[in-house]
TrEMBL record:
InterPro entries in the cross-refs: Aminotrans_IV, Aminotransferase-like, BCAT-like_C, BCAT-like_N, Class-IV_PLP-Dep_Aminotrnsfr
Pfam families, per the entry: Aminotran_4 (PF01063)
A biological-process GO annotation: 4-aminobenzoate biosynthetic process
Any single Gene Ontology cellular-component annotation: cytosol
Protein's UniProt name: Probable branched-chain-amino-acid aminotransferase
Gene Ontology molecular function terms on file: 4-amino-4-deoxychorismate lyase activity
Similarity comment: family membership: Belongs to the class-IV pyridoxal-phosphate-dependent aminotransferase family.
């Protein structure tokens, strides 16, 4: 039986209820974070909480204390006896009257769910989506609840018999996949799209840049076709890319090991 945290209490998932007037449910008015758990440790928790705070500041949501969130996350881990897996935290503005304008005073809804570890993803076949990412929008910097462009892109991938799709900026530069940042190896250098091209400031992406192993660069689909290797990376996994729009890639074991060593 899965146990979740909802608004200050642990309870069985099947008993959890979201108010029908919750703005996260009605309008996508909220944010989320997905965190990896390894040997009972929530990896890079402080970074996730910092990005969560950036999101609440942008959306003008009340921000629960980091200590309270940390306690709730660990309570879910303990209740579900999760040693390795993931946690999903969802924070909405809470309930409000009908209409777009939020109430002046709101009580956020906080939901945390835990999941056991899943099998490592197989190498990904990618296609190019017709959906775009506007790197000039501040919403590209946070994990908000409106994922419709990503959903449409993933549907396009399914239609193309691919595993995932890459979204581009309006100028044609590559931005990211539907749920992961893009890495490519070109001329021996590891590159990833910059934020201004629509990339989300992913936690794993940030770690690789800070390590000095990865560098930001505007990339086109042509650059990916010419790459020596490619990966999709997010907080939960590092996934090699094996194909993109007719181009096949070998799995670069040495570089994969380097990346995993930093992200572990």
């Amino acid at each position: 039986m899965s146990i979740v945290w909802l608004n200050g209490a642990l309870l069985p998932a099947q008993e959890a209820r979201i108010d029908p007037a919750d703005r996260g449910f009605l309008l996508g008015d909220g944010i989320f974070e997905t965190m990896r758990v390894r040997n009972g440790d929530i990896r890079f928790l402080s970074r996730h909480l910092e990005r969560l705070s950036q999101g609440t500041t942008l959306l003008r949501l009340p921000t629960p204390a980091h200590s309270a969130i940390s306690d709730a996350l660990h309570a879910v881990l303990q209740a579900n006896r999760i040693e390795s897996g993931s946690l999903r935290l969802t924070l909405t503005r809470g309930t409000g009257p009908r209409g777009v304008l939020p109430p002046e005073n709101s009580t956020p809804t906080l939901l945390i769910a835990g999941f056991p570890a899943s099998a490592p993803p197989t190498p990904a076949r990618l296609c190019l989506s017709t959906q775009t990412r506007d790197g000039h929008s501040p919403l590209c910097r946070i994990k908000h609840l409106n994922y419709l462009p990503n959903i449409l892109a993933r549907l396009e991938a399914r239609d193309a018999n691919a595993d995932d799709a890459l979204l581009c900026a309006p100028n044609g530069h590559l931005a990211e996949a539907t749920g992961a940042n893009l890495l490519i190896l070109r001329n021996g250098r590891l590159l990833t799209p910059p934020l201004q091209d629509g990339a989300l400031p992913g936690i794993a992406r940030g770690l690789l840049i800070e390590s000095g192993l990865c560098h930001e660069a505007s990339l086109t689909p042509h650059d990916l076709h010419r790459a020596e290797a490619s990966w999709l990376v997010n907080s939960l996994s590092l996934r090699p890319v094996c194909a993109f729009e007719g181009t096949s890639f070998a799995i670069h074991e040495e570089w994969t090991a380097k990346l995993q060593n930093i992200l572990s």
